[in-house]
Design a protein that fits this description.
about 260 residues; alpha+beta; three-stranded antiparallel sheet; 6 strands; extended
């Protein structure tokens, strides 16, 4: 009934298990297993487990001649009428309401006939609503249609904005004149006048040389074109805002534009 002294280990609790050494000339009782036999047994167990696996439809998975499961073959996904439709809403500025009424059929026709989308004008909310329909073949076209309408709302002509639907590498870049140089009052008006030129000649020259379209709306500048052409036009407009003479700007811009045309 006495407790064992602290620090001493009892032989029964801590004694290691005894092993009987084989007699001289005898082999141990444990047989050595080759690694190949282990792999074969593991492979057999895996095959037995896979036999009971089923796919999502409750059918047995088909196997090839080598014993491996075949990859599932799913048909390509298309827009289905059961899937919830996608929506886009493009707000209409007050000063573009009248041009929208005048050019509605030029905007409506390519969206409905070419892209197979549903479009309507919501006069209460003052916006144009887009929606995919059961006839829509590609769900990505709704974003193209939204960009097309946004370009028209910025002030581009319908024929110019239509290029966003036909070509892939066209973008619209917008910036403010005051982002280039902080101007106020008459100085701001003169900077915008230098960009436009007399009767818009400077703006037309930049558009024709860089193959872009430019819209001047108050102190905002919107440029429609490819990335490289937008860069050349933007540099020319920034130089005009900073006060460079139009002749010098036009010569450098024409040189850069000719390099771009030779490159492409």
């Amino acid at each position: 009934g006495r407790m064992a002294p602290v620090g001493k280990k009892t032989a029964r609790a801590r004694s290691p298990a005894r092993r009987e050494d084989p007699a001289d000339g005898e082999e141990p009782a444990v047989e050595a297993i080759e690694p190949e036999e282990l792999h074969e047994e593991a492979r057999a167990d895996d095959m037995d487990e896979d036999e009971d696996t089923e796919d999502a439809g409750g059918r047995k998975r088909a196997r090839g001649t080598d014993g491996k499961a075949n990859k599932p073959d799913f048909p390509r996904l298309k827009h289905q009428s059961g899937i919830e439709s996608e929506y886009r809403v493009v707000p209409v500025p007050p000063h573009r309401m009248t041009p929208l009424k005048q050019h509605w059929m030029q905007l409506y026709t390519p969206i409905v006939e070419k892209l197979k989308l549903d479009v309507r004008m919501n006069p209460r909310r003052r916006c144009v609503e887009l929606r995919t329909s059961e006839h829509t073949e590609d769900a990505d076209v709704i974003q193209k249609a939204a960009d097309f309408l946004k370009a028209f709302m910025l002030g581009f002509e319908p024929a110019d904005a239509l290029a966003l639907l036909r070509l892939e590498d066209l973008y619209v870049e917008s910036f403010d004149v005051t982002d280039v140089k902080l101007l106020r009052g008459d100085h701001l008006g003169r900077a915008v006048g230098r960009v436009a030129g007399k009767d818009g000649k400077t703006k037309f020259a930049i558009e024709n040389a860089t193959r872009t379209r430019i819209v001047l709306a108050d102190s905002k500048v919107h440029i429609l074109g490819s990335v490289t052409h937008i860069k050349v036009a933007r540099d020319a407009i920034c130089n005009l805002i900073l006060g460079s003479p139009p002749g010098k700007v036009y010569n450098s811009m024409r040189t850069n534009a000719s390099r771009l045309l030779q490159r492409f």
